[in-house]
Write a structure and sequence with these properties.
The protein is built from eight helices and twelve strands. A hairpin with a 6-residue loop joins β7 and β8. The chain is of the alpha/beta class. The structure holds uridine-5'-diphosphate-glucuronic acid and manganese (II) ion (MN).
Length: 256
């Protein structure tokens, strides 16, 4: 089955670096279709060009975050959920495209939401490939912990190891689950709720799709960390700004 990876992305100094790293990881994964959704009113040349040269099978979409929902420069990062409209746009495209594909194979596949700044081992894509409904696994360096994970007993998920509100329906990071394409197509209303309270974004999508009892634990019964919620430091531009003030800033024609 094909792994459909949905990645929201937005323009910032580190965007090209993030997408370069991610695309080069994906080049090592067989049967992967990358759905890149820009948080922008139009497709940007930077992302268009990168995708064109990537060597990957991809679909390039865009969907701007509504202004009142968009995180502002000086807001703390947790204030508003990120990537919501973009993931929903990816789901919309997938549902429409799969309906248009003739043949019985058009429902074969798995859907994974891969943010552009995380770190993915190649193994995680093989773990998720045969997802029946929803598969789950640990995520490293997240939630103020070394890792968060579903706790498995007798082959079933019975609770979650998390430091914060374990009572949430699915207290998991976005990087910690994948959904079968069939389930996505059979539940055309399932999407991410941008109005969901902090920490409930993943639950807002999964709630209507599965129960905890049905989750399929991967990565050796959720004992291995194969994906990390890494976050990239914002680069300092102090020298750049000082030089710019003297008319000696870096050439704006050079793409970074
Ligand atoms: C955590 C989770 O790992 C995310 O999956 C979740 O969307 C987010 O919290 C949330 O609560 O909304 P975090 O590392 O804090 O993630 O978020 P980012 O990595 O900054 O953003 C998640 C994705 O959305 C990234 O792919 C990023 O490129 C994209 N994004 C971010 C946008 O498309 N637009 C923005 O304005 C900001
Ligand atoms: Mn992130």
């Amino acid at each position: 089955p094909t792994v459909f990876v949905i990645t929201p992305t937005y323009a910032r100094l580190v965007q090209k670096a993030e997408l370069t790293r991610l695309s080069q990881t994906f080049l090592h994964v067989p049967q992967l279709h990358w759905i890149v959704v820009e948080d922008s009113p139009h497709k940007t040349p930077l992302v268009s060009d990168l995708l064109m040269k990537s060597g990957l099978t991809y679909t390039h979409l865009h969907m701007p975050t509504a202004k009142d929902r968009k995180l502002q420069e000086n807001d703390p990062s947790w204030l508003k959920p990120r990537g919501v409209e973009q993931r929903n746009e990816g789901l919309r495209w997938l549902r429409e495209d799969r309906r248009a594909q003739p043949g019985s194979d058009n429902q074969q596949g798995v859907v994974y939401f891969a943010d552009d700044d995380n770190t993915y081992s190649l193994q995680i894509f093989e773990e998720m490939r045969n997802t029946q409904r929803v598969s789950v696994w640990p995520v490293g360096l997240v939630g103020g912990m070394k890792y968060e994970r579903p706790v498995v007993e007798g082959g079933k998920v019975v609770r979650f190891h998390t430091g914060w509100r374990p009572s949430r329906p699915f207290p998991m990071d976005m990087a910690g689950f994948a959904v079968s394409l069939k389930l996505v197509l059979n539940n055309p209303e399932a999407c991410f709720d941008g109005e969901a309270p902090m920490g409930f974004l993943e639950s807002s999508f999964l709630q209507g799709l599965v129960t905890m009892d049905e989750l399929e634990p991967k990565a050796d019964n959720c004992t291995k960390v194969l994906v990390w919620h890494t976050r990239t430091e914002k680069p300092k531009m102090k020298r750049e700004e000082a030089l710019q003030a003297q008319g000696l800033g870096s050439d704006p024609a050079v793409e970074i």
